[in-house]
Amino acid sequence: MGAVAGPKASCSVRHAHQPHAPQPPADLPPSPPTKAPVCPAPPAPAKVEGTAAGRPDGTSLPAPAPLRDGAEAAAKERRHAHACPIREKRLRDLKGVRALVQGLRSIDDSPVSIAFLGKSVKWRRSEMGDLQRFLQRFNSLFVRSGAASQEVALSDAAPEAFETLVQHLEKRTVAEGKRLTQAQQDRLIVERMVSYFPLSNEVHVSHLEWSSYGPTLGRLQPFLNAFPDIFDTSEYPKVYLRPGSERFIQDPNLSRRPVAPTPTSKLPPPKRAFLTAHADALAVIPKFVDVSVPGLNLTGIGAAMQDLLRRHLPTISGFVCRERFRKKVEDVLNRALQQHQMASPCGEEQEEKFRCKVWMFGSSSTGLFEVNSDVDLLVTPVAHMRCPQEWLDAASEVERLHVLKDRLMESGLGPLGVVESARVPIVKPSEALPGEMNFDICLRSFGALNSQYLRRVFQKDGLVRDTALYLKHFAKDKGIINSQGGLLSAYSLNIMVVYFFHCYRGFVLPALSEVTSPEVVQPPSEQELTIGTAPEELAQAVLELLQFYTMQFNPQLDCISIDGRSQEELTELKQKAYLCVADPYERYFNLGAKIDAARWKLIVVTFYRHLLELMGERPP
């Protein structure tokens, strides 16, 4: 089982943006440089003789190998770039301008489509932002033409403008690379934000490209609220530039104002209770963590993860118990239903007796089940068989579930109850049944299709399965798998794992069309009963996934989708929800609809703390 191959491709599906507000022109020539103090470098980790910081299980990691010549300078450069996010943005601008100019020159400066140019220079949207907006920002270099301005070429003044712009960006990059105080960084960012209001005092937040400034700044709205004399966020996500804001921007004492938090007494009781219970976690602001630092003992971290997985791998005996219970429920239902009056749906007498089919889905199908986990069952009548009259008389899904409940209880399986208020109504035991497995019964087939598709994904690459299994047990241990409490479900977490591998690591997904109807669940294969990935591959994948959702994923702009649907469909699906996790088969269902900003912050902070623990650092 090898690691997923391929570059870290960016196929993150983003929201359809509001109509484009006027974009800022190319950067103006720099003002006379001022002597600025240097930005404090991140504190170096404490050195421990012989070993690095220990892992949560108490074992210690070997000391990192000394950096080679030049590696220390490169590491310091990376830390500076993330410590000064405005400089990081400038470095990306410089890289993008050079790549696009070189790409256009290589095709004789003739107009080409923007899509072709992006492919030829391998434009990464997650890193560089939207290509069309980038071309519009540097309109002194690039001229757009053709239908809907979808073709681009170098302008006549490109040679001189390119040299001037590169020198300007390099000077600004060097100046911003020095040690800046917090106030100086804020001034640079405020000036950059104001430059997005060239012709209008109104801009949608999606045009401010806030995510490209790095995760160290926190969320955009609190940052704008800290400058109330300049920005008006009363109609957020629309942002207005206040009249007379120029004098505040030029004020040498420009600094953030403390923003009063929302009084929790005015919030509804459930929301107030959640904020109070998780106040410590919600106060944490995740900072950038580089998971590619030299000397990190990936083998040791991965070995600890594999030890955890070996205790939770599926077993043949566990599957046999589940299959035996499924068969028992199927036999009990068929015997009970056949004892009642039969009637043909089409009015014709048939010789066949009615029978239903019971299918397993959920963790029993994906192969992520444990000994004590529930058995999810789907009941479907065989289409060509006669149905009992009471089944035909049931006008709704809930009434048919009551029929199933009554027949099962008559056969001695109970006590049972029907959960009518759930989004998908189910039959489940109203109390623990001695000697029986805990189970749920439903009548909708979407769960079976989803589970079968996830198993195909996991069978295609064991690294995806091992990562999903590790994240599932970690999330359960930390309490963030709790769909009834407005947090993640195990299924939505699996979708997040598959989305990460597909969009960030180039994993090719099976076609959704391969699964169209419920199938009999097969026993776990030998591959599914063992861990086939190398420890360092598993550790690297988990660290990158935690870093992705902590530092890079923006729920206000990105939607988690693995079915390739369009931006318009995702925008319609998300509506006013904070997080969008699209169900690949139930296309009008958002798995993340109940997760608000505070709950997503709790999930992110939980990921962030575990990331620090794995890297041997002390979490906040």
Automatic annotation (TrEMBL):
Catalytic activity: RNA(n) + UTP = RNA(n)-3'-uridine ribonucleotide + diphosphate
Region of interest (Disordered), residue spans: 1-81, 251-270
EC number: 2.7.7.52
GO cellular component: mitochondrion
InterPro entries: MTPAP-like_central, NT_sf
High-level lineage: Eukaryota, Discoba, Euglenozoa, Euglenida, Spirocuta
Top-tier EC class: transferase
Segments forming domain Poly(A) RNA polymerase mitochondrial-like central palm: 304-454
Compositional bias (Pro residues): 21-45
Signal peptide region: none
GO BP terms in the entry: RNA 3'-end processing
UniProt name for this protein: RNA uridylyltransferase
One family name in Pfam for this protein: MTPAP-like_central
Gene3D superfamilies for the chain: 1.10.1410.10, Beta Polymerase, domain 2 (3.30.460.10)
Molecular function via GO: RNA uridylyltransferase activity
Organism: Eutreptiella gymnastica
